[in-house]
């Protein structure tokens, strides 16, 4: 019975990972096709935020995800609003990068997220990493540099946009960990809150930037209006569904397995975009992409080992001179009298 249960879990995770990879690849390919015909990245972002807002509420209620959130207005303005701002800007710049450069190159640049995470965590949270973590960043930097130098469709706006988007997602990961720890809000409820807030906050900006241009762009809708509307709908649905599947995978596997699966997903997206969109690449370009993804895998392993080492240190008994109460091991997630609601800090909705 135990073997049957284990086999069933492995097959479930495998099926979900394949589904995740297919949905993510389809979302990126459709997003590229959409932006080629419809050069309005802010509108594409707003459609995705609308999808999160419309679909998440009913679906999460049916799924039984808790709704109660005790967040003060002060904390809401201090943490939630900036997170919504970051989500919107990171999404817009991500779409600009996919619009300006090939999907394969954009995702190679996004592989630099560990670099941004390490640097920003050091500056903001004063976190120090092990030498293995710092060393694992080298192949990422070298790989991205090689891919950039050999990219046949290089565009400086696309590169800068991809870097800004990657930095934005890194900041979201850092501050979302704090929100999850401070409030105990469910991962997907936070996704819903941020999507809905970003949608309403930036609706006036969208109206100012894109609405008038869309009204005047009659030729676009006369030539391929149905195609654009269909691609917008599919892009919004796939982007939302991608987050749901990612969370499902995360709930079934360890943090390291999820990190490896996420890096493998990026490699799958790059390969799928090269095959389906047929953008020209060189052998050196492919080597750079592969080296960057390999660096991400090394970083995930080094980071996991560092976290495990910290846990073992916390579980060690106190000195003999300590009180009887202090001689007991420190419980995981409970230290100095405060419960760490989400001590592993995993974030499935920034993918």
From TrEMBL:
Predominant location category: membrane
Matching InterPro entries: EmrE-like, Sugar_P_trans_dom, TPT_transporter
Subcellular location: Membrane
Membrane topology of the entry: Multi-pass membrane protein
Membrane-spanning parts: 40-63, 75-99, 105-125, 132-150, 156-176, 188-209, 283-302
Pfam families listed in its UniProt record: TPT
Domain Sugar phosphate transporter: 12-300
Keywords assigned: Membrane, Transmembrane, Transmembrane helix
One GO cellular component term noted in the UniProt record for this chain: membrane
Superkingdom, taxonomy of origin: Eukaryota
PANTHER family the record matches: SOLUTE CARRIER FAMILY 35
Protein's UniProt name: Sugar phosphate transporter domain-containing protein
Lineage: Eukaryota, Metazoa, Ecdysozoa, Arthropoda, Hexapoda
